[in-house]
Specification:
Layout: H1 8-29, H2 39-70, H3 74-96, H4 101-127, H5 132-350, H6 362-371
Helix pairs in contact: 1-2, 1-4, 2-3, 4-5
């Protein structure tokens, strides 16, 4: 946000801005299309443009003084710089080609933009004493310039991409032409190989035909020889089958006789098995009876063992109690003797009781005799 201007500076700024707006309006009125190509109009338009530029520079100077007096931020500085840049561009266009149609159209657009900005700023300065409309206009112009720069950059990238694609297309065309040449050479080579293969196949057919005829003749001979061998084998197999039939009959007779013998042995062993089972059952019964009697004896012995064990445990407990009692009595005697010896020592040291010291003279002698 811009700072407010008050006092004489506000009047100066308003006067300069109003003068600039009037000059721009006059410049717009004296630039119709009928003046193109007339030297008088060109000189008048050039003089008016130079006057407008000088008025713009005075407005910039007044804005700078106002900004310095009121200590405004960087936004006003940028706005002043943008105005200065627009003035420089206008000077450059007029210096390069002063009154060409393109430059006049550009000057007309810039004049309209500057006129609108100055009128808006003049109204705001008169009402509020600030420069917000100038800052907003500068920001919008920056955005437009950035958008135009983006469009230009995209167009340049598109041109570069088209050039790159054209180069790729040329490379692909060269590769395709080379590939077509290689394929034509390959087709010619394959045609030559096809002719060679036709010749080889004709020779191979003749060779295969002759070899098959020879193989058929050899196969017929081998088949006749194998037929004879198979007939001889059939005769041998028939003889073997007759021999196997006779052997089968003999084996059947032998197995029947052996089966009858085995049946007799089975009856004998079954009888013996039953007899042995009866004997073993009797032995088992006697063992069960012996087991029951031994179990009763074992229970009696276990009962006696438990009783004797209980007696032994009680005896051990009594012995342990007796030992503890004897140890306690021994400790008590030792403690009593220690207490007695201590007491006697204290009586001797302190001269208590019978150990009391006697008087001097006779009593001393009597005491000594008593001690002796």
């Amino acid at each position: 946000m811009s700072a407010e201007i008050s006092g004489a500076q506000l009047v100066r700024v308003c006067t300069v801005l109003q003068d600039c707006a009037d000059q721009l309006a006059v410049l717009g009125n004296i630039m119709p299309d009928t003046y193109h190509g007339r030297p008088e109009a060109d000189s008048v338009v050039g003089a008016d443009i130079s006057g407008v530029i000088s008025q713009h520079r005075e407005a910039e100077q007044s804005l700078k003084t106002a900004r310095q007096s009121h200590a405004e931020g960087g936004a006003i500085t940028e706005a002043v710089q943008e105005l200065h840049k627009s003035h420089k561009e206008l000077d450059r266009t007029m210096d390069t080609n002063p009154l060409s149609p393109d430059n006049l159209a550009k000057v007309q657009r810039d004049r309209q933009f500057l006129s609108e900005v100055i009128l808006n700023m003049l109204a705001e300065v008169k009402e509020k004493g600030t420069f917000e409309s100038l800052l907003l206009a500068v920001e919008e112009e920056k955005k437009k310039k950035a958008h135009l720069l983006d469009i230009i950059i995209r167009e340049e990238e598109g041109r570069r991409r088209t050039k790159a694609l054209q180069r790729q297309l040329q490379d692909i065309r060269k590769e395709k032409t080379l590939e077509l040449q290689r394929r034509e050479e390959m087709t010619a080579h394959l045609k030559d190989q096809l002719q060679e293969m036709k010749v080889k196949t004709s020779l191979e057919r003749k060779y295969v035909k002759n070899s098959t005829e020879l193989l058929v003749y050899q196969g017929q001979k081998l088949n006749t020889h194998q037929e004879k061998l198979l007939e001889d084998e059939i005769k041998l197999l028939q003889n073997k089958m007759e021999m196997e039939g006779r052997a089968h009959m003999e084996m059947e007779i032998f197995l029947k006789e052996n089966l009858s013998r085995l049946g007799e042995k089975l009856e004998y062993w079954m009888e013996r098995y039953e007899k042995d089972m009866e004997d073993k059952q009797q032995e088992l019964n006697t063992l069960k009876n012996a087991k029951s009697s031994n179990l009763a004896q074992l229970q009696d012995l276990a009962k006696k063992y438990r009783e004797s064990e209980q007696v032994v445990i009680e005896n051990r407990i009594e012995k342990e109690n007796l030992r503890k009692m004897l140890e306690k009595q021994q400790m008590e005697r030792l403690a009593a003797t220690k207490i007695q010896s201590w007491w006697r020592g204290t009586m001797v040291r302190r001269g208590l009781g019978q150990y009391k010291k006697g008087k001097k003279g006779k009593d001393g002698k009597k005491g000594k005799k008593k001690k002796k």
